[in-house]
Amino acid sequence: MPSKSLTSIVESLLFVHDQPLSLDRLATLLEEHERGDIRLALDDLMEEYASAGRGIVLAQVAGGYQLRSRPENADYIRRLTKSRGVKFSQSALETLSIVAYRQPITRAEVEYLRGVDSGGVLKSLLEKKLLRILGKKDVPGKPLIYGTTREFLELFGLKDIASLPTLKEIQELAPPDPFADQPELPLDSVEP
Amino acid sequence: MPLESTQSNLFSDALEDAYRVHIEEFEGPLDLLLHLIKKNELDIYNIPIAAITRQYLEYMELLKELNLDIAGEFLVMAATLLQIKSRMLLPLTPEEEEAEVEDPRAELVRRLLEYQRYRDASFQLSSRNLLGREVFARKFDSPELADSAPKDEPADVELFELIEAFRRVLARVSVETFHDVVTDGISIADRISEVLSLLYGGKTISFDSLFYDGMTRDLLVVTFLSMLELCKMKLIRITQAESLGAIWLTSTSEADALDGEGIFAE
Questions:
Q1: What ipTM goes with this model?
Q2: pLDDT tens figures, B75-91
């Protein structure tokens, strides 16, 4: 059970910092406290914000914790900030999701999957810092390989890249697959 | 060809007219094909290739009528469709029949399904609560903070950002319009020693301070290359406090072990 003061210290730190704070970073800053207690304090705060129906939520994004406004209140905040927020073209979204799911990936691979030239959209996503160059692929021509950034996770409110819904889950929301009535192989049925 | 004639009756003129009224924008040939399949309620695993090819070509015809540029990808797909169509019309040779050749449409179907998956994923992505659109976080953009020297947790600079920074430096230098035969004659090795001596004793200097006004383009390039070379030799670290922030150079302990003069003198 973390002390009341620890929870309040953690809350203050989260309030002041303008980026997600990782547990590692918090543990370094609060060296006089146990890491486990800090984690509990974070859990407490998260629950407290969620259950009290407050205008702030504690979100887990990009490997850290960040205080964010409640999504339901977006309209009111936009009245204040007058910003329309980010708007993505379909081609940008397609490219982002292909890179997110398939990284590390080369431009040629993206273009094969999309069926269209994607040089321009990759460049603009690099400039927006949503994608980054991870290196070069060890094949003839040494093409650049792309991956997503921390900013991508922050923007889309993702804890990490693994917390993206799997492509299989997405497909289950889509119209049924005509092969779906095939008996499932018992590979996935292992209980956790 | 009985196959084709029944199919073209099936997808009658009603479709042709649909496009005259309403032109949609397609991300590419795969998007257009998926649209045609959905619109005609076709089974993606058993596409009537003749009908789909005809509609596809009609759409391209329409683009031409409207004087819109047709992207090369659309033409490539048209050729692919025609090729599949002709392969389906040709009877299989006995050897092919034995070898159980793959349906000529298989590759296209795989690509369509895969594309559809990522397209669905992209809709999913954009329906999330986006920072700055549905959810907001606190931020302060105080200029003093942005420009201050790196603090406790400097991040390594991405190559892309470094090149971007150098591009900005190059843009500051006007392009010389006359041919000047005077050469500075500074080699990368010389410049490396200079940069190292600036950093001697664990000092930190900013990226921009290496490029002072009045430098020739040659010297700019030599400086940038020396920086990359030093980084490769692990003698300096290039960091920034935050992305888009100022870029800083620091010497590593290995560099301090040398005595400023260094190993580069020939």
A1: 0.78
A2: 889 999 999 988 888 88
State which residue of chain B sits closest to A20, comparing Cα positions: B137
Which residues 6+ apart lie within 8 Å of A152 measured at CB? Answer: A96, A100, A130, A131, A158
CA B169 – CA B164 distance, rounded (Å): 9
Those residues whose C-beta lies under 8 Å from the C-beta of residue B1, and which sit 6 or more positions away, are B89
Q: What is the DSSP track for B213-226?
A: TT--HHHHHHHHHH
Q: Which two tokens stand for residue B105?
A: 């449409």
A134-138 LR contacts (CB < 8 Å, sep 24+): A134/A103, A134/A104, A135/A104, A137/A104, A137/A106
| CB within 8 Å of chain B, chain A residues 123-162 | 126, 129, 132-133, 151, 154-158
> Is there a contact between B118 and A59 if contact means CB atoms under 8 Å apart?
no
Beta bridge partners of A177: none
Smallest Cβ distance to B132: which of A25, A85, A91? A85
- Is the pLDDT at B53 greater than 70? The verdict is yes
